[in-house]
């Protein structure tokens, strides 16, 4: 059995084979773009039709053929509150299989550096704000997405176990709420920010006099542009090594009411914004402590206003290709 060994992070070989699992998704596509911009010349990605990551034999065959030197595991079954609470078995089973297959195959076939991407929902529902990495496993999870959270926690544990048993310098990163080009704008599967963009854009186009949103608008949430997330991933691979997961966020938050105003301005909606207080608000605040990330030398660069504006532009330019 191996033990943790000293490892000094360094710039990755730009010619090394780099596999981005989930390269067509919101995060994976941003990581792919960033790696190309940073000069990586041997990027590998497969669509779910080309490679079903839930198929263990297929995943091992893929790794045997490509032997990636570096891996980012950004592939996952994701969804909003409705999807998570309606299909918990799917979110637990699918994500566990994806993670176990990719992590085991990467170890078997010699991946040097691997970054596992999780989610801030791994933390207890009532964790002290801002949420520190040490809060993991100290309380009960949010019931509406506990199955997804448990799968992601298992991924963190898997990476830590590989570090202990095989002495591989693999790491995990936990992003806050992400948004940007490639997001899911579907009516039932989207998260709050893309849902607001679609709602306000449609209202602006219809010249609607008012838009009603769920809840009071008082909960506070943190949002990180996916291009910043991609930058953070490469930075961590080149500058960080440790068993503990690293929070990735901006370290600042806004109320949902403030977010709605930012979105309304970005799409050009000038009607009335109402709130249905009979609908649930959810957790009052969800903000990550990003001290560990700052100590590693990285901080977010894209402001929320600029990020929302560019996301609206992408949404409109790709409206004919969006998920229903």
Report on the structure:
The protein is 40% helix and 14% strand. The model has no long low-confidence stretch (mean pLDDT 94). Helix 6 (192-205) crosses helix 8 and helix 8 crosses helix 10 (304-317). By secondary structure, it is an alpha/beta fold. Strands 2-1-3-4-5-10 form a six-stranded parallel sheet, sandwiched between helices. The termini are far apart. It has ten helices and 13 strands. It has a domain at 18-182 and 222-250 and 288-301: Rossmann fold.
> Considering DSSP H and I runs of 4 or more, what fraction of the residues is helical?
40-55%
Largest sheet: 6 strands, parallel
As for the CATH topology of the domain at 18-182 and 222-250 and 288-301, it is: Rossmann fold
Strand order of the largest sheet: 2-1-3-4-5-10
Say how many strands there are: 13
Overall shape = globular
Q: How many DSSP H or I helices?
A: 10
Beta-strand content estimate: 5-15%
Uncertain residue segments: none
CATH C-level class of the domain at 18-182 and 222-250 and 288-301 is Alpha Beta
**Mean pLDDT metric:** 94
Order of helices and strands: EHEHEHHEHEEHEEEHEEHEEHH
The second-level CATH architecture of the domain at 18-182 and 222-250 and 288-301 is: 3-Layer(aba) Sandwich
For CATH, the homologous superfamily of the domain at 18-182 and 222-250 and 288-301 is named as: NAD(P)-binding Rossmann-like Domain
Determine Rg (CA atoms, Å). Answer: 20 Å
- What is the CA-CA span between the terminal residues? 50 Å
């Amino acid at each position: 059995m191996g033990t943790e060994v000293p490892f000094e992070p360094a710039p990755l070989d730009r010619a090394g084979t780099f596999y981005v699992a989930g390269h067509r998704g919101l995060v994976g596509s941003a990581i792919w773009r960033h790696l190309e911009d940073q000069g990586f010349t041997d990027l590998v990605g497969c669509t779910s039709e080309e490679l079903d990551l839930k198929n263990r034999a297929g995943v091992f065959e893929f790794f045997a053929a490509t032997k990636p030197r570096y891996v980012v595991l950004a592939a996952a079954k994701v969804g909003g509150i409705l999807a998570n609470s309606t299909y918990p078995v799917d979110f637990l089973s699918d994500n566990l299989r994806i993670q176990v297959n990719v992590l085991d195959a990467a170890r078997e076939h010699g991946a040097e550096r691997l970054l596992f991407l999780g989610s801030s929902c791994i933390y207890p529902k009532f964790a002290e704000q801002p949420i520190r990495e040490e809060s993991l496993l100290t309380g009960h999870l949010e019931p509406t997405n506990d199955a997804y959270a448990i799968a992601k926690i298992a991924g963190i544990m898997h990476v830590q176990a590989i570090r202990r048993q095989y002495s591989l310098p693999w790491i995990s990163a936990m992003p806050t709420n992400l948004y940007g080009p490639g997001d899911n704008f579907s009516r039932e599967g989207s998260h709050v920010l893309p849902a607001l963009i679609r709602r306000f854009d449609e209202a602006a186009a219809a010249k609607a006099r008012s838009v009603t949103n769920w809840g009071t608008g008082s909960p506070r949430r943190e949002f990180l542009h996916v291009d910043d997330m991609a930058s953070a991933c490469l930075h961590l691979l080149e500058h960080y090594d440790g068993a503990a997961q690293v929070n990735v966020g901006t370290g600042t938050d806004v109320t949902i009411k403030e977010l709605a105003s930012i979105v309304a301005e970005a799409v050009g909606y000038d009607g009335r914004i109402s709130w249905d207080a009979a609908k649930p608000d959810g957790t009052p605040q969800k903000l990550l402590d990003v001290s560990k990330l700052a100590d590693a030398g990285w901080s977010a660069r894209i402001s929320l206003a600029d990020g929302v504006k560019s996301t609206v532009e992408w949404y409109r330019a790709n409206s004919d290709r969006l998920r229903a």
